[in-house]
What we know:
- The protein is of the alpha+beta class.
- It is 40% helix and 29% strand.
Amino acid sequence: MPLDYYQHSNKGHVRIETRRCWIIEDELAFEHIRHYQGWRNLRTIMLHRERHLGDKVQLETAYFISSLPADAKRITQAIRAHWSVENSFHWTLDVTLEEDRARMRTGDSAENFAVLRHVALNLLKRFKAALDDHFLFELLQGQL
């Protein structure tokens, strides 16, 4: 089965992290699920992460689907960039709107307030973009 492989290691925050990415691109392997709308060019990706924190080792395997060309290095970078955006967004929600301190526990209140916080943060970003062309440009470039 044709595949592409890429491995990247980095050190930071008192840990060593190694990412290994395998891209499998095989028409026959995915034939039975290609009929779903939007999955016509499906390829599958497996990303394996290994973190060393002192004597402790943490292993994680994640599966992703994509229609990108079978380029393991490019896809590894795209996955990392996506998580960078996710982490930044969640950090902003926690620091600005104190999301982690929220104590809603009954019914749908936690989910409803999470939606309200997301709307509030997006409105603040839109307002700032209306006032600051440089911020607007960075927002449109996907840098924020």
